[in-house]
Amino acid sequence: MNKYTSIIWDWNGTLLDDTHLCVDIANVLLTEHHELQLDRDHYREVFGFPITEYYRRIGIDLEKESFESLTKKFFRHYDTSVLQCSLHRQAGDVLQTFRERGLIQFILTAAHKNSVLQLLEHFTIREYFAEIEGLDNHRAESKVARGIQLMQDQGIERKEAVLIGDTLHDYEVAQEIGVDCILIANGHQSRRRLETETRHQILILDEVWQLPQII
Length: 215
Prior knowledge:
The chain has two domains: 6-17 and 86-213, 3-Layer(aba) Sandwich (Rossmann fold); 19-84. 42% of the residues lie in helices and 17% in strands. It contains nine helices and eight strands. The protein has helices spanning 19-32, 40-46, 51-57, 67-81, 91-100, 113-122, 144-154, 168-177, 191-197; strands at 6-9, 16-17, 86-87, 104-112, 129-135, 161-165, 180-184, 203-205. The protein is globular, with a radius of gyration of 17 Å.
């Protein structure tokens, strides 16, 4: 019998392959601040939460431009181009496999819930998820409170659930809500960071298609 009955998915970078878009937008913002450009490898070494700290790490002066202004600019570009992104390779097959195994799947995201719902409809995968828990704003704040709410509302058993994400914040959220964690290393943070900063305490995979082999 499988250990898990519930799968809690992160969205951005885990199922949705939007890293390249976020790098492009970061470079637009950096150009406006006369800073050097990022490539994908550098981005994956510096991106993280809170987003304000990430902006500081790449050289954006929040004294010169407010976080609110940067957020508006980011999502103006993001919302215009996100439909050009795709799901990670075989993500749809993984969702189907888990459903066939009787696993209940959820999304826990730091993105705006309504925006994610629209994307799920666009990619025709809304049917795979029993619930989507996200924010009501675009500030990309911590998911811990939302995760706790999801666990309570859905009656998820901690010992039977795993959170699947692509960042160290997903690992932190899993610890806070008391569930196992698996990280995917082809999203917004590099395998080196994930392995080093979690001290190899969890399973880290290269791509989402490997999941059916282990769950």
